[in-house]
Amino acid sequence: MFSHLAPPLSAVVRHSLLVYSVMITAHRAAFAAEPVFVPGTKPLLLQETGAGEGPAWHPELGLLTSGDGNTNRRDKEGKPSVYRPDTGSNGLMFDRAGRLILCESARYRVTRLEKDGKLTILADRYEGHRFNTPNDLTQDSKGRIYFSDPRYGDRDNMEMVDAKGRKVEGVYRIDLDGKVTRIIMHEVDRPNGLVITPDDKFLFVADNNNNTDNGARKLWRFDLKADGSVDVASQKLIHDWKTTRGPDGMKLDTAGRLYVAAGLNHPNPPFETAETPTAGIYVFSPKGELLEFVAIPRDETTNCAFGGDDLKTLFVTAGGTLWSLRTTTPGVSIWKSNTK
Q: How many Å separate Cα 40 from the centre of its chain?
């Protein structure tokens, strides 16, 4: 399952990955009639640095990623460069007009890069409080932007609290008129990756609290209402990673399948203690059934994005490195018609 460029793994790790893959294959056989990935495809290591998070594909620019404090570019010929220095970005997304939206985590804000190169601040405070660290983005068919706002690491300077003084790590919506609304508050533990289905029916939320005893490592689905709010009562658990690292970034393909970056190859005590290697891409059916798992031999698997001219290359970020996989079905493109 690994590229020849991947570093060697121990015999124990290879055996554990084999056992885990057999389990997933058996589970997949009950639900999937067609392959998710091109038969024989293996994770291909593309670059060793500059791809910590936020992959986003542009048909002319190529792939943008967040890493080393910058927003980086890998052009269509594979040449890496710094696209925008010192952005402190995490999640990246091109909106329906083809403009780059950035979660500038280091500056506690969400911004938009206009076509003329100017930067517009879309959200930097809510009810007078500075955001924690905006992390990931998605967009609905009306052009409204949704972003998660967790806080990993030092929590001493968090300003987001509720009326009782409890810290809030929420999910927010930015309307077309610029109004910012919190749509998820304490319903999840620590929201990370987000994605909305093309029909605006569902919002998936990666809940990844990886540095707390009994922290959530879960993937949730909410019904999304026409006004852009969620039906809290509809909250449904899709998958629980339990004692390994939870879900991070995720994307959809045009068949409605969900590709989720999650897991670890080695325990990270005291909070992530699972011994079995689990780092890679998990693929779920539209009904939430686990169909496929592809191991990525680098910790941590943080995010993914579809790209290439046919949108059938899945780019995967992991521990600052960049990998690719070939899929049988194109990914959903927010701002450009999909290639069939």
A: 25
Q: Enumerate residues 6+ apart whose C-beta is below 8 A from 11.
A: none
Query: Taking the model in full, what pTM does it have?
Result: 0.90
The reply to whether 271 falls in a domain is yes
- 298 residue type, one letter: R
Residues 6 or more apart in contact with residue 9 via CB below 8 angstroms: 2, 17, 265, 277, 297
Instruction: Tell me the Cα Rg of the chain.
Output: 19
Q: What is the mean pLDDT of residues 276-291?
A: 96
CB atoms within 10 A of CB 8: 9
Tell me the residue range of the domain where 267 lies.
11-326
Query: Per residue, what are the HEC states of 263-281?
Result: CCCCCECCCECCCCCCCEE
d(CA 243, CA 268): 10
The pLDDT tens digits of the residues spanning 46-94 come to 999 999 999 999 999 999 999 999 999 999 999 999 999 999 999 999 9
Q: Decide if 248 is inside a domain.
A: yes
**HSE of 104, CA atoms in CB hemisphere, 13 A:** 21
Long-range contacts of 187-191 (CB under 8 A, 24+ apart): 187/220, 187/222, 187/230, 187/232, 187/235, 188/216, 188/218, 188/220, 189/215, 189/216, 189/218, 190/150, 190/151, 190/152, 190/215, 190/216, 191/135, 191/148, 191/149, 191/150
Residue 2 in domain:
no
Residue 23: pLDDT band (50, 70, 90) is very low
- Calpha distance 238→254 (Å, rounded): 19
